[in-house]
Amino acid sequence: MNQRKKTIIYFTAAVIFLAAVAIGGLFCKEAAQATDFSQKNLLPGLSHPFGTDWLGRDMFVRTIRGLSLSILIGLAAATVSAFAALILGIASATLGKGVDAVITWIIDLVMGIPHILLLLLISVALGKGLTGVVVGVALTHWTSLARVIRGEVMQLRESQYIKIAEKLGHGKLHIAVKHMLPHLVPQFLVGLILLFPHAILHESSITFLGFGLSSEQPAIGIILSESMKYLVTGKWWLALFPGLMLVLTVILFDVAGESLRKLIDPGSAHK
Amino acid sequence: MILTAKDISFRYSKKDREILSGFSLEVSQEEVVGLVAPSGFGKTTLCKILAGYQKPDRGEVLLDGKPLSGIKGPCPVQMIWQHPEQSVNPRLRMREVILEGDNIGQDIIKGLGIEEDWMNRYPAELSGGELQRFCIARALGKSTGFLLADEISTMLDLITQSQIWHFLLEETRRRHIGLIAVSHSSALLDEICTRKIELQR
């Protein structure tokens, strides 16, 4: 088996797993909140793979539901963020020195404030909850991708083959679509996928700290912060499995992003 | 058509010396002009100015008396660069690189020894010499009237050099394309040129 086939398998497996979690969670909204006091505080076993909590709720279903919520929030936030990065990056590189100075200044400003602090401020200012988290994550994560895209466009504009294409009589639109887009799309896609783990982690951390989603929603941050209270009483499974699943999700997004980069980069595309 | 360079002066930055000062040249479409000078005397700079990639500080480049910069569409003065790997987009397949040129015929592709198998590859999967053939083919579009060859054969072995120059000379003679060749090899220029120009510092 060659490198390319292996990478395709990694990518597909990661995407299938994440999609299964995201979609599976949509269907177990009730199950995640169903309480059963005859089944409370059970150790992980066959009928409850991740055990049950102090209200007899199945931790496996709750974890899937929580991750699903996190992935969907991550999707929304990362998409908004990536598009902001694309537009601002291209604007910065093409609209002249003044616009570039302003956008670079904003990038530096956002980057200069610690992510989590800015995220908390935005989320609280927007009244917490879903909108607060999505807007908060979206507004704080676009900067590094915007920088990458700005740099890429600037470098492309100066490159020999673009200048040759101009002399061969091709218009600006043709050059943008034919020559620049194939360079920007991979950057954008990979940047977008690699934004997910950040978005998910930040979403769960501010929810964990109590500034994100409300406590009725079984978000992964809520599950973890609630489990903390029961950890001292020896109920280790309440935090361990949701925590592991969160880490696994984040790693899989990273695997998906990296494999996609390898697949579309001509340097490694045919390996 | 006649390509004229009139009193061209150029410097890269204000502090630098003038790399070209008051340079003039007139080339007709029947000529093969050789350009010789040691490194750093402005051969490539001159080519870039003649092909319109760079604006001279003073003086102008004219095509039949009209400024070259005013021409819309494919530029009749095409330049083949010294480094083919920088002249093709690494993310385009070679087939599309050829399509960038202005109606490149099969005879040109055959004449340069480009194999069908190369067409589906990316630039990273071809050698410098193979890439250079694509760059030459791309510059030989229908509207090309003058060709600037900036050390195009430095990375090729002698047999390939001779093959490519034979093709290029025949093609430019047949289609009445004026050729300006830059090379460090005076033997090569003696062989192919109708006239030689030496750049002075």
Automatic annotation (TrEMBL), chain A:
Primary site of residence: membrane
Subcellular location(s) of the protein: Cell membrane
InterPro entries (UniProt xref): BP-dependent_transpt_permease (IPR050366), MetI-like (IPR000515), MetI-like_sf (IPR035906)
Topology in the lipid bilayer: Multi-pass membrane protein
Keywords on record: Cell membrane, Membrane, Transmembrane, Transmembrane helix, Transport
GO cellular component, one term: plasma membrane
Keyword Flavoprotein: no
Transmembrane segments: 7-27, 67-90, 102-124, 130-149, 181-201, 236-256
Domain ABC transmembrane type-1, first and last residues per copy: 67-257
SUPFAM superfamilies: MetI-like
GO term, biological process aspect, one: transmembrane transport
Pfam families referenced in this protein's UniProt entry, alphabetically: BPD_transp_1
CDD domains from the UniProt entry: TM_PBP2
Family membership: Belongs to the binding-protein-dependent transport system permease family.
PANTHER family tied to this protein: ABC TRANSPORTER (PTHR43386:SF23), OLIGOPEPTIDE TRANSPORT SYSTEM PERMEASE PROTEIN APPC (PTHR43386)
Protein name in UniProt: Peptide/nickel transport system permease protein
Organism name: Murimonas intestini
UniProtKB/TrEMBL annotation, chain B:
Source organism (scientific name): Murimonas intestini
Residue intervals of the ABC transporter domain: 3-201
Top-level taxon of the source organism: Bacteria
Protein name in the entry: Peptide/nickel transport system ATP-binding protein
InterPro entries: AAA+_ATPase, ABC_transp_ATP-bind, ABC_transporter-like_ATP-bd, ABC_transporter-like_CS, P-loop_NTPase
GO molecular function list: ATP binding; ATP hydrolysis activity
Pfam families: ABC_tran (PF00005)
Family under the similarity heading: Belongs to the ABC transporter superfamily.
BP GO annotations: transmembrane transport
Keywords noted in UniProt: ATP-binding, Nucleotide-binding, Transport
